[in-house]
């Protein structure tokens, strides 16, 4: 069986991905995967799904992982059930195959995203546009001085400020996910900017310096960012 059933619910936004060799899809997490799709999953994936306390979270996890398998299978010319995954020490998954592309998942509400790179580690993060009640406190904790100034200079209506904040937030998260640092690296320790334009980012983690490129995208009310690791020292 191919990944056609999973791909049916995915929107290919690779034209917004920013760089050659990078692909991007958004997909719906509201639907229940079919029995055939669930058959693609490993025993570990099914066990993880069963541990969710809330049905909504279980459904979203299953939908995301069947889409992941279907889209990766398409990209690699494999069957979804044949894919095997490993995890880094920090828990970032990767494919257990030579010359496999790197990938990253994200979700917000009922929307999921998958980004894939032919070369270099990749991170993706999305947020559905929403009201951010603690915007100022979060900005002070997670943004650099220049990023806080950029947000403060936005004197438009609240929705515009929230859009600018979420652009910055997703750019930070995409960079952290690209290096696989998780929450062990403070977002305010590096500059990713709030504007959607592509830019180079340098950050230090675990005694190493990482050089990344980050780029924002938008599809309807979904705001997101992709970061690709270019090199590390």
By CATH, the superfamily of the largest domain comes out as: 4'-phosphopantetheinyl transferase domain
Instruction: Give the CATH level 1 class of the largest domain.
Output: Alpha Beta
Q: Look up the CATH topology of the largest domain.
A: Ribosomal Protein L22, Chain A
- Radius of gyration (CA) equals 18 Å
Range of helix content? 25-40%
What is the helix tally?
7
Residue windows where pLDDT falls under 50 for at least 5 positions: none
What portion of the residues fall into strands of 2 or more residues?
A: 25-35%
Shape designation: globular
CATH architecture of the largest domain, by name, is: Alpha-Beta Complex
Please give the domain count.
2
Q: What would you note in describing this structure?
A:
This protein folds into 2 domains: 4-119, Alpha-Beta Complex (Ribosomal Protein L22, Chain A), CATH 3.90.470; 125-232, Ribosomal Protein L22, Chain A (Alpha-Beta Complex). The strands form 3 sheets. A 4-stranded antiparallel sheet has the order 1-2-6-5, covered by helices on one side. Strands 7-10-9-8 form a 4-stranded antiparallel sheet. Strands 3-4 form a two-stranded antiparallel sheet. The protein is globular, with a radius of gyration of 18 Å. It contains 7 helices and 10 strands. The longest helix has 22 residues, at 55-76. With 233 residues, the protein is an alpha+beta fold.
